[in-house]
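User: Hey, quick favor. My workstation is busy. Could you predict this chain's structure for me?
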Amino acid sequence: MIELTPLQRRALRADAHHLNPVVSISQKGLTPTVLTEIDRCLKAHALIKVRLYGIDREARPELITEICTAMQCAEVQHIGNLLVLWREQPETAGAEKSVLVRRRSGARGVPKTKKQAAEALERKRRA
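Assistant: No problem, here it is.
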């Protein structure tokens, strides 16, 4: 299980705010199929939301720990039936494209001026 600093956790929570859940865990619990789907989504997106249906409040922490250890990911946030998970993508390891390294120019990462937007577009083209 990966440990995050409070600063990293805050940045990831902000990035996950607008995301919709991509995996649902319900009646049958944590099956190999669900773990495979979580792994596939983490490889594709690095930051995902998981919705838990019908799982007792007392059983959730154990389930979250099991997911994090099996997938080698970090729990970013757990509120009610929603769980936010993060795992660094192998191709971005150590690069400035990482979610944790990226700097925001304005609120929600949106450039404040046209000049900043043009500079960001130019940087993206060069990369």
